[in-house]
Design brief:
Blueprint lengths: L9 H18 L2 E2 H8 L3 H11 L18 E2 L1 H7 L1 E2 L1 E3 L11 H16 L7 H13 L14 H14 L1 E8 L5 E14 L2 E8 L4 E6 L3 E10 L21 E7 L18 E3 L2 E8 L2 H9 L5 E5 L1 H16 L7
Antiparallel strand pairs: 1-3, 2-4, 5-6, 5-9, 6-7, 7-8, 10-12, 10-13, 11-12
């Protein structure tokens, strides 16, 4: 009696079959009853659909249906245990898939997103990570993404944006100076692993960019923001030069030039020298140059001025001196 129901119309059967195959692929093993409950149909309708799927496929190059050209399932499990397990997939299984490394990279990114404060409901992200794991052409590598101290600061910044109020914080600039800033937060952006806050700085009375890992003691104030995002023109580039920036001449491999493009003033020419490109960049302070050079080992050399060369060379020498054979 439980299986008696009004037969599905032709269009309903087609929609059911189109939904059933990916559903069975996703679950790998599932009972007839669970499948019927999911689609709101009778177990008999599920059994008939599964039997139809098992005689469906795409003919091979000869135009005949050969072994492997049809869907197949574990018949003993289906007939004796009422369990559905597809053992051969046709056409659908030929769709492009992520490699194991590609899936691992995407899963790592999703893990990072799930750790951000605003992603309170992480069920959708967890479901997507599971689908990526099952849908990859190879088993993804196990990757873990560790949270950072910046996550709490990001949460406070987003809180100030949602409330429309200013935020205060201590900021360590590129010169190593600490200043207390009060900012109207306008936009949060990321470059690689670094997060940045762009906002109207009331100390400088201008738009400024702040690296979030250099922010400390943030405080959401009760003071309403003076400028909203639509009222302030934000430059397309994340980093904007100032009149106080210092010029530095470097030689860099052509392939690495895009990595320093933000530091090269618009319209500045480059000159080829012995297979490398000589370019002029602008930095806010010579000490800030160290991090840039360290991120491009063997690809960039500081040419001038002498003070910039000395700062980078002394910093590299100090790092090398820490690697010593003497335990003392």
């Amino acid at each position: 009696m439980a299986d008696r129901a009004v037969p599905l119309q032709a269009q309903d059967k087609l929609a059911f079959l189109l939904s059933l195959v990916p559903f069975l692929m996703e679950h790998e093993r599932i009972s007839v009853q669970e499948t019927a409950n999911h689609f709101g149909v009778t177990p008999m309708a599920v059994r008939e659909a599964v039997e139809l799927i098992a005689v469906s496929g795409i003919p091979g190059e000869t135009g005949q249906y050969q072994h492997g050209d049809l869907f197949d399932l574990a018949w003993d499990d289906f007939e004796e245990n009422d369990q559905i397990v597809l053992t051969n997939l046709v056409a659908i299984d030929d769709a492009p898939r992520f490699s194991g490394r590609e899936a691992a990279a995407l899963i790592a990114g999703l893990q990072y997103l799930s750790a951000l404060p605003e992603n309170a409901d992480r069920s959708a992200i967890a479901s997507l990570m599971t689908k990526l794991s099952h849908g990859a052409s190879a088993l993804p590598s196990q990757v873990a993404v560790e949270g950072s101290e910046s996550d709490a600061t990001l949460a406070l910044i987003r809180e100030s944006v949602a409330a429309g109020v200013q935020i205060e914080f201590d900021y360590l600039n590129s010169r190593g100076e600490h200043e207390r800033r009060r900012v109207d937060p306008l936009r949060i952006e990321s470059v690689d692993a670094d997060w940045y806050l762009r906002g109207w700085c009331h100390l400088r009375t201008a738009v400024r960019t702040f690296r979030i890992d250099r922010i400390s003691d943030p405080l959401v104030t009760a003071e309403p923001i003076t400028f909203h995002a639509g009222e302030v023109a934000l430059p397309d580039t994340l980093f904007e030069g100032t009149a106080d920036d210092l010029p530095v001449t470097i030689e860099i491999l052509p392939s690495a030039l895009p990595l320093v493009a933000d530091y090269i003033p618009d319209g500045t020419p480059t000159v080829e020298v012995d297979g490398r490109l000589r370019a002029n960049i602008l930095v806010s302070h010579y000490h800030g140059l160290k991090r840039l050079i360290a991120g491009l080992p063997g690809m960039v050399t500081v040419i001038a001025p002498g003070e910039a060369r000395s700062v980078v060379a002394d910093w590299a020498a100090a790092g090398a001196a820490r690697y010593t054979d003497d335990p003392a």
